[in-house]
Amino acid sequence: MAKTLIIATKNQGKAKELASIFSEDGIEVKTLLDYPEIPDIVEDGETFQENALKKASVIAKEFQLPVLADDSGLIVDALGGEPGVYSARYAGEGKDDQANLEKVLLELKGVPIDKRTARFHCTLALAFPTGESHFFEGDCEGIITEEPKGNGGFGYDPIFFVPEKGVTMAELEPVEKNKISHRAKAIEVLKKNQHLLKG
Questions:
Q1: Where does the UniProt annotation place the signal sequence (predicted)?
Q2: Rounded to an integer, what distance in angstroms lies between the CA atom of residue 196 and that of residue 180?
Q3: Binding-site residues for Mg(2+), please?
Q4: Element (H, E) at 121
Q5: What CATH number corresponds to the domain at position 83?
Q6: Is the pLDDT of residue 1 over 70?
Q7: Entry pTM
Q8: Residue 30 lies in domain
Q9: How many domains does the chain have?
Q10: Which residue ranges make up the annotated binding site for substrate?
């Protein structure tokens, strides 16, 4: 019988990406879309690890199954690491991508391009009902542009310039983005540790 892993997300794209990784090992993936009765878990941690682990551990105990959760965001060096864990609500609780992006650009007004270094960060937390947990992390380095470019992606992608590609994240094709993104890199680390689920 296949093991079951719950992905603590309501994002279909994210769920599909992770499900394809585990299906090769006969692990059935379910997401929070399969459990609409579960209320949203408040992400009130001060680090990506705290938020990811909170989501994963609460649901692991509830269902007595292993759970994978992620927390990710944008870290801008000139802003002292902000928006960081507050990336989704940087401009307020409404979680408005456009407002968040505009706030970053406003905060960086007048900052020269060589001082606009940033990275997207992703922390994946794998939690078991026993309380055991593991973390897998990935980063994608870039530079914050002075104005948005591109219509793809979401969040801060239009202002995140990827030097190795010569375009913003929002100008990349989804297949290309999924090869270099912070989440892709965290998943790569996770893939090397899939044995944790096979015990």
A1: none
A2: 25
A3: 71
A4: strand 117-127
A5: 3.90.950.10
A6: no
A7: 0.88
A8: 4-197
A9: 1
A10: 9-14, 72, 154-157, 177, 182-183
